[in-house]
Specification:
The chain contains 18 helices and 19 strands. The protein is of the alpha/beta class. The protein has two domains: 162 residues, Rossmann fold (3-Layer(aba) Sandwich), CATH 3.40.50.280; 294 residues, tm_1862 like domain (pyruvate-formate lyase- activating enzyme, Alpha-Beta Horseshoe), CATH 3.80.30.20. It has a seven-stranded mixed sheet, sandwiched between helices. The chain has a six-stranded parallel sheet with strand order 10-13-14-15-16-17. Strand 4, helix 4 and strand 5 form a beta-alpha-beta unit. Helix 2 packs across helix 7 and helix 10 packs parallel to helix 12.
């Protein structure tokens, strides 16, 4: 065993749950951090002692965990950051810096791939990992173990004590993701993870990396080159989760699970060959599923399919660069229903160049698809997206808001306003969409007809709590100006 100890810390995700309150967000669910658990397994495989603290699962704020950080006596503390959660990650790093003054603080994740230099202006961070983290982070650990300098490691930016930041050459992502072990599930508080619509206990997995599509609102920043895990290794992990933790449902968090028809058949056949009894649910595109694929997956244990629809007209879908059609959406969900799958669709309110008529049509369209669940979001111009670029070009935002957000350590979360929609109007439309979908008598009857036990009843009660929060956020909250051009708070 090597002497360098690594502590992984997951931040509290309350900051990511806009516009819901923490109470409503907790109803929706708390999920494990696959990124940190994956890194922990990888460096542990190379002989490093590791620990992991999930602040979100334990409902701890960083200041309340300061003594635990100190007690771990880490040489390296590893954090991951999404942009919305950036202020929470800063707070963790500052607490760690006080509790463990000699520790090297490393941060990776999407935020570091978008604004690495700006992020390192915060002196609580030592080094940023850009892109896929496994090989770069292992390199960092090896340098610390050997006492080597950290300033020249490919795939990183390094902050010197003088404040000067060294940007090093990029590191090519590994083409072989099968070499990485399954996440270190033994480090995670499995009994604390839950979700409103999932069987418990549940776990999460990814079977691919990358995405070949470029939807205008998506901040997928790593690679459009797809990499697939071998189906046998995927089922190995599923089997491990079932046998070790009694997992009843597995959430496949691939950007698009159903890529490759032959792969889907091979995966399904491997699950059936092993007689593995576990439910799973997937994220897919409507143009990557057909009756044959969904029938295989259903036999193998697929319970629920989630697909992004976003708009109700082909015109708006084209603006979003979604590369699907309304007809494809109707066909995909019709097949999913007929195969016997639970269905969820995702929809967006307020994309640029949309009209009130477009939004009304989306609301009508979503209610007519026969879905079990629907989720509606207000368009947010996330960094590194076409939507954000357009927002800057058209003056919907004053310059690079997210860069300022990074340097300032936060600020009011922006919501897109255009010439057509105010922030308040968008919130009203989102609430209307939720009420129109979930208050339909036919849907209520269908859900009560499925409610055969306490779990189903609690799911319905939890859903009502979340819906109430969404309605309250529109009716009771004003939308103050934040002095950022045409942006308003969520």
């Amino acid at each position: 065993m090597k002497k360098t100890k690594i502590l992984f810390v997951k931040y509290h995700e309350a900051a990511d749950q806009q516009p819901l309150s923490q109470k409503a967000a907790e109803k929706l669910g708390i999920f494990p951090s696959l990124a940190l658990a994956q890194l922990a397994a990888w460096v542990r495989q190379h002989g490093y002692p590791v620990g992991l603290i999930d602040l979100h699962a334990e409902n701890l704020q960083p200041r309340d965990a300061a003594q635990r950080f100190a007690d771990e006596k880490p040489d390296i503390v590893a954090l991951t950051a999404k942009t919305l959660g950036w202020p929470a990650v800063i707070e963790i790093a500052q607490v760690v810096r006080q509790a463990c003054p000699k520790a090297i603080i490393v941060c990776g994740g999407p935020q570091m791939s978008i604004y690495p230099r700006e992020s390192l202006t915060w002196d609580c961070f030592d080094i940023a990992v850009v892109g896929d983290g496994e090989d770069t982070f292992l390199d960092i650990c090896d340098h610390v173990e050997s006492g080597s300098e950290l300033d020249k490691i490919p795939g990183t930016l390094f902050r010197r004590s003088t404040g000067e930041i060294d940007q090093n050459p990029t590191r090519a992502a590994s083409k072989d993701i099968d070499k990485y072990p399954i996440p270190a599930w033994d480090l995670l508080p499995m009994d604390r993870y839950h979700c409103l619509t999932l069987l418990k206990p549940f776990a999460t997995m990814v079977t691919t990396r990358g995405c070949p599509w470029h939807c205008g609102y998506c901040s997928q920043v790593y690679s459009d080159k797809l990499k697939f895990r071998a189906p046998t290794l995927v089922v190995d992990e599923m089997e491990y989760l079932v046998k070790t933790y009694g997992v009843k449902e597995i959430v496949m968090f691939d950007e698009t699970f159903t890529i490759g028809k032959k792969r889907m058949r091979t995966l399904s056949e491997e699950i059936l060959r092993r007689n593995l009894k576990v439910n799973f649910n997937i994220r897919a595109r409507v143009d990557t599923v057909d009756r044959e694929v969904l029938t295989w997956l259903k036999k193998a244990g697929l319970r629920s399919i989630h697909m992004g629809v976003e708009a109700g007209t082909d015109r708006v879908l084209k603006i979003m660069n979604k590369q699907i059609t309304r007809e494809q959406t109707e066909e995909a969900f019709r097949i999913a229903r007929e195969v016997g799958l639970e269905t969820r669709g995702y929809f967006m309110v307020g994309y640029y160049d949309t009209t009130p008529a477009d939004v009304e049509e989306m609301i009508k369209f979503s209610a007519g698809l026969g879905l079990d669940w629907a989720s509606y979001s207000v368009a947010t111009a996330l960094p590194a997206t076409d939507l954000y670029r357009i927002a800057q070009e058209r003056g919907y935002v004053d310059g690079d808001f997210w860069r300022r957000y990074t340097i300032n350590g936060g600020g009011p979360i922006p919501q897109l306003e255009t010439e057509t929609f105010t922030a308040e109007r968008l919130r009203q439309y989102r609430t209307k969409a939720y009420l129109n979908f979930y208050m339909r008598p036919d849907l209520i009857r269908r859900k009560f007809s499925k409610s055969e036990g306490r779990a189903e009843l609690m799911e319905m009660i939890g859903g009502a709590t979340v819906l109430t929060e969404i309605v309250k956020s529109t009716v009771l909250k004003s939308i103050p100006s934040v002095g950022l051009g045409k942006w308003g708070t969520v």
